[in-house]
Amino acid sequence: xxxxxxxxxxxxxxxxxxxxxxxxxxxxxxxxxxxxxxxxxxxxxxxxxxxxxxxx
Length: 56
Fold this sequence. Notes:
Blueprint: H1 9-23
């Protein structure tokens, strides 16, 4: 029996096992992430006319 013809099997098996290992689904974290609060400053703005001039 010629074993040289079967030399492709070990790398093929390793490739299939590696592919399955890399692509299997990871367990999802079912806990919700903590809410983060964002602190902002707010300012009331009133509309008023503005004159624009350009000097060139």
